[in-house]
Structure formats: structure tokens, C-alpha cells
């Protein structure tokens, strides 16, 4: 799975790319909670996506992981199979009031990945793909806001837009990796609108309208990111600056996709050390994103 939420980086890179974890910008008092959230997501992601196990085995392990989560959230003793995950997570949930349903949503998305990847199913339309993002990425942003006591409806909605945008950016960045692995995130109705056959992903890269399709998906992701960007002025202190980096890093990836002619079927764009300077410059110039 390639969610939010999302590592210690400013934008999608490799594994759980969109998730800023315990970086130097995070206040020390919150780092254990952030690390606990990441450990939960990272472990569940590995259960769903790593190693040679069958889909049945993966779903069985995820069901056991869910049972441990429910025990953790309800204050019941865990079996001890994942003590490095649920010990710290129980402390973080108790200390910060982290909502159990957000963690359950993440698990739903991991389980969906197992089924959809193994059955070669795609997504019918953008609404269906956004529902996946609602569970695979948005909970991470909401959990992070909870740590900073930001819980108004407008901020939560903007966080959802940023997290969904990051998830979509990861999809459009990773077409060269995902399609050979049987992961199909280009919505079927968007494919049809550009003349591509949703049932023949092996032919997508060679279609004359394939790059136009990616361009439309990039514009969609960019619109979501820009709509959520005013949140950087609502999140306090250093966390607000880290969020600026997340937003600008994601936008930088979109710029790179555009710069290579939207052809991510053959090459995966990524951030390089020399991208740090323009990202920092843009981080300092985000007044235009005030609501």
C-alpha cells in the first residue's frame, strides 16, 4: 500500500510516503505519539503488502492485528504479538484521546488493498477512489491534528484535502511501479473519457491519450492540495512549517510529473537534494494560501 500518509519526508517518496513522522520540527513531547501512529500504520502496511504470503494469509494477519487494536482501544490486555506497536499506541491513545475509528479506517484500507491488488480490480470513478483515500490517508492527518488540538470542521476538511491529494500524487507518481504489480488506481470512467480500455491496463502506456489522462489526474490532485493549503496557517508553531513542507513537497512532485510530459508510465519522478531549495523558498511564501 502507498498511503499518507503518508515518513520523515516532505512529500511522497517510497513507503508510507505521505506521513511526516517525529521529525525535528515535531515538539519532543509529541514525538512518542507520532512514532506510535507511524509504527501502527507501517506494521499494518507490511502485513498487507510485504512478503510472499497469500491474500488469505494477509487478511488473517490483518484480522489478528484488528483484534489487537480493539483490545488496545478498549483497555483490554493484548496478546503480545505486536508489543512494539500496541504498547506505545495504547499510551498515545490514552494520553491524547486518539479516536479508535480512525485507526479502524486505516485497517479497512489496508484490507481493501489486499483484495483489490490480488483480484486486479480498479476503481470505477473518482468518488470511489476518494473513498479509499478517506480511509487510507485522511485518518493520518486527522490524528496529527488531534495531537495539536486542532479539531474545527474547516481544518479537518482541509486536512482531508491535503491527505487525499498526497495519496493521489503518490498514485500518479507511481504508475510505472503500480501497474506491473497489479495496482490500478486510474479511475475507469476517466480512462474511458480518454479512450483507454479500463480492462486492459497493459495497453495504457501505449495509448495516444495516456499522457492527457495523467495530466487530468495531476490537475485534480493539484486542485485538492491548493484547496487544503490554507491549513498551514491554522496549525501552530513548527508543525505548521512541517505542513508547509508536506504541501510544497507534494506540489513539487506534480511539477516534476508535468516536466517529464506526464509520462509516469515509464519513469517515476522523485525529489532530489537539489529540490530542497525551491521547496524551502515556496514554504516561506505561502501567504497566498490564506483562506
The CATH homologous superfamily name equals Farnesyl Diphosphate Synthase
Helix percentage = 55-70%
Number of folding domains? 1
The poorly predicted ranges are 1-22
CATH class bucket: Mainly Alpha
**Element-by-element helix/strand order:** HHHHHHHHHHHH
> Helix/strand-derived class?
mainly alpha
* Total number of strands: 0
Q: Terminal Cα separation, in Å?
A: 33 Å
Largest sheet features: none
Helix tally equals 12
**Whole-angstrom Rg:** 19 Å
| Shape-level CATH architecture | Orthogonal Bundle
Q: What's the rounded overall pLDDT mean?
A: 88
Any idea of the CATH topology? Farnesyl Diphosphate Synthase
Structural shape = globular
Strand share of the residues?
under 5%
Organism: Ramlibacter rhizophilus
Keywords: Transferase
InterPro entries: HSQ_synthase_HpnC, Isoprenoid_synthase_dom_sf, Squ/phyt_synthse, Trans_IPPS_bact-type, Trans_IPPS_HH
EC number: 2.5.1.21
Describe the structure using short key phrases.
disordered N terminus, EC 2.5.1.21, single chain, 12 helices, globular, Farnesyl Diphosphate Synthase, mainly alpha, 291 residues
Architecture overview:
The protein has 12 helices and no strands. The protein is an all-alpha fold. The protein has one domain: Farnesyl Diphosphate Synthase (Orthogonal Bundle). Helix 1 runs antiparallel to helix 2, helix 1 (31-49) packs across helix 3 (83-96) and helix 10 packs antiparallel against helix 11. It is globular and about 55 Å long. Its EC number is 2.5.1.21. GO terms for molecular function: geranylgeranyl diphosphate synthase activity; squalene synthase [NAD(P)H] activity. This is Squalene synthase HpnC.
